[in-house]
Amino acid sequence: MNDDIQLNIAGRITKAFARSKLTLLILLMGFLAGTAAFLVTPREENPQIVVPAANIIVQKPGASPKEIEQLILKPLEAILQGMEGIDHTYGMARESMGVVSVQFEVGEDKEDSLVKLYDRIMSHLDQMPPGTEQPLVHPVDVDDVPIITISLSSASLDDRELRKVASTLMEYLRQVDGASNPFILGGRKRQINVELDLARMRRYNVTLNDIEGVLKATNVDMPTGTFVNHGKVETVQAGGKLQTSIDVANVVVGLYNHRPVYLKNIATITDGPGEIKTVHRIGFGPAYEDERPEDLEIPAVTLALAKRKGTNAVTVAKNILKQLETVRDQVIPEGVMVNVTRDDGKKADQAVNLLMEHLGIAVGSIIILLIVFLGPRAAGIVTLTIPLILLITLLIGMMAGQTINRITLFALILSLGLLVDDSIVVIENVFRHYSRKGIDRFKGVVAAVNEIGKPTNLATFTVILAFLPMFWVTGMMGPYMAPIPFFVPVAMITSLAVAYTVAPWAAYRWCKLRGADEHEHGGGILERGYHVIMKKLVASKPLRILFYLFLLALLGLALAMPSMGLVTFKMLPKNNTNTFNITIDARDGTALENTDRIARMVGDIVRANPEVASYETSVGEPGVIDFNGLLRGSGLKRGPQVAEVRVHLRDKHHRDISSIDIALQMRPALAELAQKTGATIKLVEDPPGPPVRATVLAEVYGPDMDKAREIALQLKQHVFMTTDDVVDIDTSVEEPTSEYKIKVNREKAALLGILPSQVAQTLRTFLAGYDIGTVHMDEEKEPVPIEFRVPVSDRRGPADLSAVFFTNRQGKQIPLSEIANIEKVPAPFSILHKDQRPVVFVEGEMAKTSQVYAVLRMWKYLKNNPLPNGIKLKQYFMADPDITGYSVRWDGEMRLTLDVFRDLGAAFGVAIVLIYLVLVGYYQSFIIPIIVMGAIPLTIIGIFGGHAFLNQPFTATSMIGMIALAGIVVRNSLLLIDFILEYRKSGHSVAEAVLQAGATRLRPIMLTALAIILGTFIMIFDPVFGGLAISLVFGTLVSTILTLFVIPLVYYGRYSRLEKKRQA
Questions:
Q1: Same domain membership, residue 4 and residue 128
Q2: How far, CA to CA in Å, does 1037 sit from each of 529, 748, 942, 1007, 1023?
């Protein structure tokens, strides 16, 4: 059987499986196992990006920022410098505290990195200066970002009561399998408030130190041993725990006239919430679906839960909300509104389901195409292979630890047009063989597959080579895009295996001999038309020259489009989302109530938009962190001058306007409010890709930080604010503020028997309050602290410090004014570091256009002009700055863009080299591979032309499309060249071989091209992957048409001359 031809690997595989009953079992097992994999593989919206990070917090009370920098930041940074795997370190020195944020390389093992970091810090504690507290290593974990947030709000209950409800609810929700890291944001906790009466304390001669010592000694209960009585061991507890506010009130804190002084004699003790240090509420906009309360802003607390690593976000979120509904009636009292303000599980499910619909539409389009061009039988066979390949690919992905997410499905849609190609080529060739008279059915199948086996293997391998280098894309973009270089090659290999097993098996059973007549093939119009045009081009050298000149003109026009402004560059376009965040940074020193007033005005602006459903306001601390905020460092902001407003819009599927346009509508009013109040108000949209500190980010370096701050302010005023479309401009330069310094006269204090530490501790309690311990209440789910504090009315300003006194060992009362002076001095600035260098940041966001052109305009301005202070800045993009002078390095999205396009460009170059090496090895020729790859430059005509035609920017995903096209066009060229060589071996002339090969391979090449176009067209309007679709649709359309002519003509031009020389 088939003894007259030599079988290659494709022919041998087909011979083994085309009549085997095992093939049917493989087919069924592939469908069943793949379906199971699809159902159980975890779903998420985006791939998990593993970025191990931690904040190292070191406190040294009383130290200035400069001391912290010299004694803590620099030694810590030097300790960390030798660690492997660290990408960046960020340092901040402020009064009494230093923070070093460590960001490891993307993909580093999280647990291993954090253990190494902790060991490194602990082993160098001897380098910390005296008086320094032990460093705290606080991990920053992406897995701790909540996937579910539930807002509990009420117009009748206060924040403390809401927190109590949330605490009870959390006990139930945390039990859900897969739920992790639950916490409550907002609401004051229950505590025992001890408001001290300074006048009474002075009268009874009781000091803060006295009260502190007594309460610590009183609130003790510990095991002290055991009794053994009649063979039974009984434990003994000693002490006396404080269990109620009455217990606290009755603590004896001193003696006066030989009578006990109780705490209640010198303080007011209450059981209730503490002072208001943060504010949380929820507001309701016009698009809120349920009945809005009468008050459009009411107190709220938020319960947040993350998912455990490796679990299915969709399943965990659904189970949490199911548990919520189960316990709602028994836990949530009447009058409490429940709003699910974040549901990443639903978000992921919607994203995956939408793309599954797109995948289904793409598959349906390809099936219709196949029916039209190949007829129902052939189309049925290829249709059978499509879901089989996709399901097996998902099965392999599940076994490799991949998840089903947006990028996974984009990869499958991208591969859809490619994976049907192998089966199309096989079936089309089987039909061609079956049209011959007298051929055996089985021999015909084997011969057809054997004939196209080598070029198909090579073509598939070249497509795989085009994608594999993408694995080496660095930074956060690497794991973000990693499903593409994983799933596309897997799908291609699977499609090749299916094309050599299942497709021939089905063709052998379902296709009839001589079934590929003109009607089923759709007629020979295409072939005849192609043959006529090619024949004229082959026969006429002047026509060929005109054709080449026309191509060069098109290529030149395409290459000129970026410089002409017809094609612009951008990292990734913004996405249409259901939420965005507004951050508020009031002037330093702003009181909480004033910041809250600004936040309410922001709420008024937000509520005026008809597409706003609700918004959550947090004052004094940030709202619930998301992935973007986690990596931007938003979670570290605390203080009365800080606020956030998280805006929730009507679902994007139910509104006609995008979140991008809604943000544009709000920006003018927010900018006006910022100017009016002096606050920095930023509207932060969720990035479509990896987050950065700011879209436009200038890092200012130099030897003197005061001068660097001056430069940063001038950059903001004269460069950032004068550049079109740059908004939300800010710097890391703090506004000049003042502070009070209380300088203790050490000599006087010593003579009077008062220690400076005693002064500092007393004043800290006086001004900030102090948790002295906890009361022991078994029924409470959260600790109940005992907080000392002086009433707000007694600590309005420095004049109130006259009431502070100290008692020496002789019992004499010493007022603060007798041993200390109060001075108002300028507050020192915080000091920032990046990678051990002092730095000042200037930040901005883009309203709607690409940051690339804004940064280039700024770069050009600074290149040609000094700043108003006369300093000419050196500028850097990729290199480390020279800190001996003053310089600026452009970071943010610009750096990410440069890194990504550099890596993708390198991947493209490596793919070209690998493809060339493989082709040289296959053809044993240096010239033929160059001819085969000659179609690659032609893709630029379609890619840039398509982007210009649709007025869309060329993005990172557009570049991925360009890389994919390199493999596709080479695949088409290979099919042409291989058939030309086969015809040459059969004794045909160069001209005859060129004409016959082109006409023979025209239909499968066009089918492949149309399959790719129809498969990816559905993605054109996607905000993120639209660039990839544009590249594939327009690039495939133009390059396929041109390849069918260019490759045969170039081959003819080269080898017809050699043929004539041999004939001569």
A1: no
A2: 18, 90, 7, 11, 22
